[in-house]
Design goal:
GO molecular function: catalytic activity
Helix content: 25-40%
CATH class: Alpha Beta
Pfam families: Abhydrolase_1
Oligomer: single chain
Order of helices and strands: EEEHEHEHEHHHHEHEHH
Number of strands: 8
Protein name: Pimeloyl-ACP methyl ester carboxylesterase
Number of domains: 1
Radius of gyration: 17 Å
Strand order of the largest sheet: 1-2-4-3-5-6-7-8
Largest sheet: 8 strands, mixed
Structural class: alpha/beta
CATH superfamily: Alpha/Beta hydrolase fold, catalytic domain
CATH architecture: 3-Layer(aba) Sandwich
InterPro entries: AB_hydrolase (IPR050471), AB_hydrolase_1 (IPR000073), AB_hydrolase_fold (IPR029058)
C-alpha cells in the first residue's frame, strides 16, 4: 500500500496495480485519491476485473476519498481459487481489507459485489461506516437464481453480434440504451497500459453458481445494516430485478433509494453524470 506522503493519483486510468499477499494468495488492487481516513472499497460485479470499473464513477469519488478497487481470488491478477459461495467471497474481502491495515471502511458495490458486501457486514459488524448498493439484491431475493440463465443467453447474443456481453446484460436494447452501452464500453477501454487479465470462463461459471446458491438461500436479517445506505438501480434490471432494490430499501432502515428511468442493470453507468456526484456527496469526507 502507498504511504500518505506519496502524491495522490487522481485518475483511475493512471492508478497503478499493486498487490498484497495473504498466506499463499496474492490480491491485486488499485488505489487512487488522497490517502488518510476511512477508504472507500469498491466491490465489483460478476466475472469482473479491475478494468471493469467505470472511471466516470470512480474518479469523482476519488477527488476527495481514498479509493481501493480489488480483484477477487482467482480473478484477473489475483491468485488462488474462485470462491464457490458468496460467504467465502466475503471472507476473502475481509482478508484483503485486514491485510491493508483498515479497521473501518466505506463500501461502493455493484451487482454481485453488493451481495458480498451484505455478507461481509453481517459477519463483521462495525467494519463498514457507509454503504452504497447498486444493481443488487438480498440473499434469497426473488429470481436472483435466474441470473445464470439471463447471463448465458446474453453472452450468446453478444457473440452472435460480436458485441461485449455487458451491452446486453447492463443496458436496454432501445436507442438510448444502445448508445449508453457503447459509451460505457468505450470508457472501460480508456486505460491502455497495465491492463488486467480478463476473467476466465471457469471463474464466470463458479461465480454464477455462487449467486444461484445465494438466491436459493434463506433471507438474511438486514435489520443489522444500520449504517447510512444508498441504493440505486435502473427501472428495468433484467439481471437482478429492480424490485429487489426496492426490497432492500424496505428492509434497510433509513436507506435512500434512487431508480433511474428507462435503464437496466447498468443504470448508474447510463446516468453516471447524475449519479456520481450523488454518490460522492453521500460518501462524504474520510474523517
Amino acid at each position: 500500500m502507498s504511504t500518505p506522503g506519496e502524491p495522490a493519483v487522481t485518475s483511475y486510468e493512471q492508478a497503478p496495480t499493486r498487490s498484497v499477499t495473504v498466506g499463499d494468495v496474492r490480491y491485486a488492487y488499485r488505489e487512487l485519491g488522497p490517502k488518510g481516513g476511512v477508504p472507500v472499497v469498491f466491490f465489483v460485479h460478476l466475472a469482473a476485473t479491475l478494468d471493469n470499473w467505470d472511471p466516470r464513477i470512480v474518479d469523482p469519488i476519488a477527488e476527495k476519498r481514498h479509493v481501493i478497487n480489488f480483484d477477487q481470488r482467482g480473478v484477473g491478477a489475483s491468485t488462488g481459487e474462485v470462491p464457490g459461495t458468496i460467504e467465502e467471497a466475503a471472507d476473502h474481502a475481509y482478508e484483503l481489507i485486514a491485510a491493508l491495515g483498515f479497521e473501518e471502511i466505506d463500501i461502493f458495490s455493484f451487482s454481485m459485489g453488493g451481495m458480498i458486501a451484505q455478507d461481509l457486514i453481517l459477519e463483521h459488524p462495525g467494519l463498514v461506516r457507509r454503504l452504497v448498493l447498486t444493481g443488487t439484491g438480498p440473499r434469497g431475493g426473488k429470481d436472483i437464481e435466474k441470473v445464470a440463465g439471463v447471463t448465458y443467453r446474453d453472452i450468446l447474443r453478444a457473440t452472435l453480434t460480436r458485441s461485449d456481453p455487458k451491452e446486453f446484460l447492463f443496458f436496454n436494447r432501445d436507442a438510448a440504451g444502445k448508445s449508453a452501452a457503447k459509451a460505457f464500453i468505450k470508457r472501460l477501454q480508456e486505460r491502455t497500459v497495465d491492463r488486467d487479465r480478463p476473467a476466465t470462463i471457469k471463474a464466470l461459471r463458479t461465480q454464477l453458481k455462487a449467486i444461484q446458491k445465494y438466491g436459493r438461500s434463506a433471507p438474511s436479517d438486514l435489520s443489522a445494516l444500520t449504517m447510512p445506505t444508498l441504493i440505486a438501480n435502473g427501472d428495468h434490471d433484467r439481471m437482478v430485478p429492480t424490485a429487489l432494490s426496492e426490497d432492500l430499501h424496505r428492509r434497510i432502515k433509513g436507506s435512500q433509494l434512487i431508480i433511474y428511468p428507462n435503464s437496466g442493470h447498468g443504470g448508474i453507468f447510463q446516468f453516471h453524470e447524475a449519479f456520481a456526484p450523488v454518490a460522492a456527496d453521500f460518501l462524504g469526507s474520510p474523517a
